[in-house]
Structure formats: structure tokens, C-alpha cells
Amino acid sequence: MLASATPHAAEPIKEKSSMQAEHTLSASRLAIAPIGAFAATGNLPALHAALDQGLDAGLSVGDCKEILVQLYAYAGFPRSLNALGELMKVLEERKGRGIADAPGSLPGPVPSGDAMFALGTANQTKLVGAPVKGPVFEFAPAIDQFLKTHLFGDIFSRDNLDWQSRELATVAALAAMSGTEPQLLSHLRVSLNVGLTPQQLKQFIQVLALKVDVGASQRAQAALEKAS
What we know:
Elements: H1 18-21, H2 27-30, H3 32-41, H4 44-56, H5 61-70, H6 72-75, H7 77-96, H8 114-128, H9 135-139, H10 141-155, H11 163-176, H12 181-193, H13 198-211, H14 214-227
């Protein structure tokens, strides 16, 4: 990626048809729900099965890696590292069964230093829909710097996973955890800003109810009703 402040995102995972894309999510995107949720809560046996099913649904190895790497920003390094270790086990098992999973793409180059801060600020503004300010950022400017430079710069500038998929993974993780309702609401609003429809998000929430737990789906549904 060029060292500029122009927001950039990879092309979304392709849906089956343009008509279907208006109303439903692909199997690969729906598979993000249990992966993000179980990685965030540290349920490794359930994550193991979810990753296996996600690869069967069309996620690449790179997609899964990127989802689990990104989630450290929301669930912490221990959960992310454990989840990546579980992905390694899944891939080894699948290799033993003769399955050759698509590797996926690597991220393009990204800027550094002040250029990364500028790019992260632009990415954050585009995702949220307006410049982000608030008392907490004035109280602790360091957290604002970290969010802009690292989360929205380093992570959201990586173009090997599109913004819609990143937001779905984040929504799943935040919905699965308790005490993160304000952030869940914020990311559901961002999900709408990047082009996901309320109907697609309702479908995603239904998967949380079916494959994760009712509590996660209820938190997400309550936030979606406020966000829509």
C-alpha cells in the first residue's frame, strides 16, 4: 500500500450472486460468527470445530489467520495466540485427511511512522463515518494514538481481509463477551457504514444463536436495534 492517508480495504469475499448479496451472507462469511466468538471466549474445542467448518465453507488459511490475529485487539494476546495454535492443529489434521486448503493472499505493504497515523486516522473516520473524538481520548491521549496508529492503521490497512469481514469478526467477538456492549453497538454501526445490511446482520446474529449461545445473539440483536 502506498504511504498515503487514503483509506483502503480489500475487495469483499465474493457472494454467490449480486441478487443474493443484497439479502444474505455467503457461507464463508457466516462461518466467521463462531470463529470470532469462540476465539474471543477461549473455547478452544468449539473453535477447533468452527475453524474446520469455516475452511470447508470457503475461508482460506489466510482469512482464518487474519481473523484470529485481529481479534487480539479486542480479546487480548493470550486468546489470539491460543486460537492461532488451535488453527495450526486444525490445518495439520486436515492435511492428514488429504485436504489442501487455499492459502489465501498476503497483505500488501503499509506505511510507517506519521504516515501510518494519518492512514489510521483516515481509516477510522471512514469506518465510523465521522472524526472520532471524546472525553476519554482527551483524558488518555495515548489510547487515541494507539487506536489510530495500530488498530485502524496497522491492522485495518492490511488488505488481505476486507473491512466487512473484519467487522463481522469483531461483532462476533464483542457479542460473545459480556461488558462490551458500547463497543458492540459501535461496531454494528460501522458494519452498516461499510455496506452490510440490517438483514445480513440479522442473519449473522441468527448464526450466533444457533452455533454460539443465546446470550451472544441477544446482545448483538439489542445493539443492532439501536444501530439501525
